[in-house]
Specification:
The complex is a heterodimer of chains A (169) and B (295). By secondary structure, chain A is mainly alpha-helical. Chain A has helices at 2-13, 28-39, 42-60, 66-84, 91-115, 122-156, 158-165. Chain A contains seven helices and no strands. In chain A, α2 (28-39) packs antiparallel against α3 and α6 crosses α7. Chain B has two domains: 42-115; 119-279, Thrombin, subunit H (Beta Barrel). The chains are: A mainly alpha (169), B alpha+beta (295).
């Protein structure tokens, strides 16, 4: 799992930076944190979000804590919702990632503008960056969520995967 | 929900809030300009740097590959656009060449008209009889331009025919290749008043004419130029008709006949001159025959 996060971080900073959707880049980490939080639970979701966010902070941000705080909160929230919604269906995590991306970006926007007195008009950011990014992440969720889902249930018990595979759609 | 589970959730939430508060402090602390990074950050960045370099290089190659693919499509589109432009330019060039040719023809006509002693009216061929039976063309000048029936039509190369019908803005010209239009003609070299025949169409070869009813003693040979004789009152004297290709005895054996190659290419007529008023002076056929065989 840790390796996949390292790999994702490297891909995100290199390969994906060449595939901008308008000006937006996907956030694989966020997709991973929300997906895993949704599949696992809120505590593990928050822990994964915290670790992944800190790693992202160290590698990409001069200040520590921005990504860690946002991703920890979202990992926790995804875990809470995972209890209430069907984990076997792809629709819920996909929509959740869309909403989580917008929340994540608004949270970062708030933190950056309030704590570092830096920012661009929020309307511009929403239309040009947040929404394209949310769609980009949704597309990534369609690829990644089934993968995590199967990996997790295969790890737990092959029978469990057999039982749930048919339900994942 | 059971009580221990609820407590556990409460503790989780509390822990989350504490960590969040800690992270906020961390943001405030590290958000300012830092002179030095922490050893953990240093270590992680040092560990990640080589891998990031490798991945960035792979990413650039991937992007270069996609750029090539995209540029291929762009080149294809550009190629298509340039092809269209080329096609358009070719059409333009053709059109200009056509104009150039037209200009050349008009210049020749003008030069001829200036030298001619007749009062001439230039006309453009706007239609031609598509059938092989009659030799008629339509020109864009009619009685509003002063054109009348039986006016003679020529080009700078020679005789074309005669106006047969006139409408306000156009007229029909009966070509000398039409069997309905016999023309009295003579040999330009001798201008012998006895050597007068009738030029008419030649059924075996529509591109040729035939002069018949020439006396057996007529002085005519291949290469001679045939001109209008002026007899009959329609065609002024001296208009060039064609060149003798072959002389033969008529079937009756009483008269001579000759095959004539017309000077005018009737299949390529585009502009003609209508003689509005012929001069009494003889037509200066000598000017037109310069450099011609038999002259």
């Amino acid at each position: 799992m840790a390796l996949s996060f390292v790999f994702a971080l490297l891909i995100e900073g290199s390969v994906f930076s060449f595939f901008m959707l308008k000006k937006a880049l996907p956030d694989i980490y966020l997709v991973m944190v929300v997906s895993l939080g949704f599949i696992l639970d809120e505590r593990r979701g928050a822990a994964i979000g915290l670790c992944a966010g800190l790693l992202q902070d160290i590698i990409f941000s001069s200040a520590l804590g921005f990504f860690a705080l946002a991703k920890m909160v979202l990992g926790y929230g995804a875990g809470l919702l995972g209890r209430e919604l069907y984990r076997e269906q792809l629709l819920a995590p996909t929509l959740l990632v869309f909403a989580a991306t917008l929340l994540h970006e608004f949270l970062l926007y708030f933190l950056v503008s309030r704590l570092m007195n830096f920012g661009v008009p929020v309307e511009w950011s929403l239309s040009r960056l947040f929404i394209p990014k949310a769609f980009y992440n949704m597309a990534l969720t369609l690829l990644l969520y089934p993968l995590f889902f199967r990996l997790y249930y295969r790890q737990r018990s092959p029978d469990g995967l057999q039982r749930r595979r048919g339900a994942l759609r | 929900m059971s009580k221990p589970k609820r407590d556990r959730n409460r503790w989780s939430l509390l822990l989350l809030l504490v960590v969040a508060a800690g992270l906020l402090l961390l943001i405030v602390f590290t958000g300012k300009e830092r002179i030095q990074l922490s050893p953990v950050e240093d270590l992680l960045l040092a560990l990640f740097a080589p891998a990031q370099t490798a991945f960035a290089s792979a990413g650039q190659k991937l992007q270069s590959f996609f750029d090539t693919a995209v540029s291929f499509y762009e080149l294809k589109a550009e190629n298509e656009r340039l092809r269209q432009e080329l096609s358009f330019m070719e059409q333009q060039v053709l059109s200009l060449q056509e104009l150039q040719k037209e200009n050349h023809r008009y210049r020749e006509l003008l030069k001829f008209a200036e030298k001619s002693s007749h009062r001439l009216l230039a006309a453009e061929v706007i239609a031609r009889d598509p059938s092989q039976w009659f030799g008629t063309i339509t020109v864009n000048r009619g009685y509003l331009d002063g054109v009348k029936q039986e006016m003679v039509v020529i080009t700078e190369r020679g005789l074309v025919g005669m106006i047969s019908t006139v409408s306000p803005n156009s007229s029909q010209v009966l070509l000398i290749t039409d069997p309905r239009l016999p023309v009295s003609a003579t040999v330009q070299r001798t201008r012998d008043p006895v050597t007068v025949g009738i030029v008419e169409s030649y059924a075996r070869d529509s591109a040729c004419l035939r002069i018949t009813y020439l006396p057996l003693e007529a002085n005519i040979q291949p290469g001679d130029l045939i001109i209008t004789s002026g007899l009959g009152g329609i065609f002024p004297k001296g208009i060039l008709i064609g060149t003798v290709r072959e002389v033969e005895q008529d079937q009756s054996g009483m008269v001579l006949a000759a095959l004539i190659e017309p000077r005018v290419n009737f299949n390529r007529l585009e502009e003609v001159l209508i003689i509005l008023q012929p001069e009494k002076a003889p037509f200066p056929a000598e000017d037109a025959e310069e450099g011609e065989p038999g002259s």
